[in-house]
Amino acid sequence: MSLPVIQLENLVFAWPGQSPLLDIEHFTLAAGERVFLKGPSGSGKTTLLGLLGGVQLPASGRIQLLGQDLARLSGSRRDRFRADHSGYIFQMFNLLPYLSVLENISLPCRFSAMRRRRAIQRHGGVEAAARHLLTHLGLDRPELLRRAVTELSIGQQQRVAAARALIGSPELVIADEPTSALDADAREAFLNLLFVECQAAGSSLLFVSHDGALERLFDRSLSLSELNRATPDGGLD
Amino acid sequence: MYLLRLALRSLLNRRFSALLTVLAIALSVTLLLGVEKIRTEARASFAGTISGTDLIVGPRTGSVQLLLYSVFRIGHPSANMRWDSFQRIADHPRVAWALPISLGDSHRGYKVMGTSADYFLHYRHGRDRALAFAEGKAFADLYDAVLGADVAREQGYVLGSELVLAHGTGSVSFVEHADKPFRVSGILEKTGTPVDRTIHVSLQGLEALHVDWRQGMPARGAARISAERARDMALTPSSITAALLGLDSRVATFAVQRDINRFPDEPLMAVLPGVALQELWSLLGVAEKALFIVSVFVVLTGLVGMLTAILSSLNERRREMAILRSVGARPRHIFSLLLLEAFGLALAGALLGVGLMYLTLWLAQPLILSHYGLFIPITAPGPWEWSLLGGILLAAVLMGSVPAWRAYRQSLIDGLSIRT
Question: Contact A91/B418, CB-based, under 8 Å?
Fold first, then answer.
């Protein structure tokens, strides 16, 4: 249990033939921790998320998730590792428009047997787990479940996305600007719900945003610009 | 399988473009299968129209032409053969039976054929099937007529109905034999051959119609001969159109054919129905191949349309792919998803195409029969049709692997980053 969820050591990433975009000496996210990572455009945020997702590999240095060195896994094993252990919430339009609310939430359990198993262990079934999360996120009105996801408000859509990230209790939830489309009141409300559910699921939360107004709510706050020793050319985000 | 469900839901979400793609494939499949169906059924139907006849005899002309007008009632005879020639051939020692055929009149578009009552005994179709009477019997009286099944059904004729024959073979004729109406004495069972659309009368009856004709025109006024007076006249025809021969043994076929081809009094020819059919196929073979190739290309065009539709949708679906990747779909899932999409579109297109083909066939069956004397039965797809359909699906999967591969590459590059 004491293994850090994320551990980066001397991580360097560069596209072939270009100067490094990302150069992080040290970063750790402990189990159950909620960390705010402030990253304006061009700070290498997208690249870091790609590395944490195992979609890209570092040029040098080490990236460990739950003690597992991602560079040592094959591409498809990294994909499976990501599916099993992390949930994602993006800025907006997170949902597949052609699936219902419940089907959208259940998606990770379709691709990860481990998360399906955990959902069944905790709630007796995938759909039960989805309904449980929806209830806790304040979306339990039955008419909402029947509605097409595109008819939900943005705030409701983000809560559905949060439920999808949390289903099957992954160790890590990565949120990439999930609140930037919400108004100020809705942001705090959304965050509080997210915190409670992350705690209930035992997930650590890495929250990336350019908006520093929320950082006071987290256990710890870091700035990617300070963390990153490389100086990316701005435009590349 | 969940991916299949995802692929279908995604397609349903783009149902308008998906529907157009399916429709394009369906129409091309309809065309291909329809062409193949008509091709094979036309062959079977043609081959099954005449059996048991060893030789077709007629005035010297093309063998295909002789076959077409004597058996299929297609086209018009360019010359006749003399009655005494027919009698001499019928008396040939190896000839078991000889059926005269005399064409040239019609009734409401149906061909009228003068023959002898033996026709109903000896004519065979399909696999040696004889003609059978659904009602009544062969013509006995001078003005009796035996109707093919379709004539009776379509015109609502029953035994005893009277019909007026018309001169010439057009569907609209201005010269009718109104003074000598015929009475229905028998109606044949359906055969699926041109027999169904033929009105059979005796040679003498046909002769009686024209007994008072001079130089191809009906007599007028006092020169007209009434139906009753015609009964007392000599009604032996001077010529007939063609004759069907049955021999006492197959072995004699070539000898009798040679004798007829060297007939001293009149230029005649005898053809083997099978050989004439083969000649017909070789004439039609080029057209058949061309038709097949064109329909294959139409199917390919339909599939290329599908390829275009999927490829052009890829860019706007990068977000969809990234979402799937973020919830754990691997690149090979993305590949399979796109491949299943292509397969699903092609399968839906193929199924709809098969349905459309049968619907068209069902609607066109009576028209084809009445216009071309061709009966296209509605039967389940045979091995050849199945292999064509399988080939189409295979081609669709091969073509679908192009967008699938592109989406695969794209999802590797895009990763989890969502682009608008």
Answer: yes
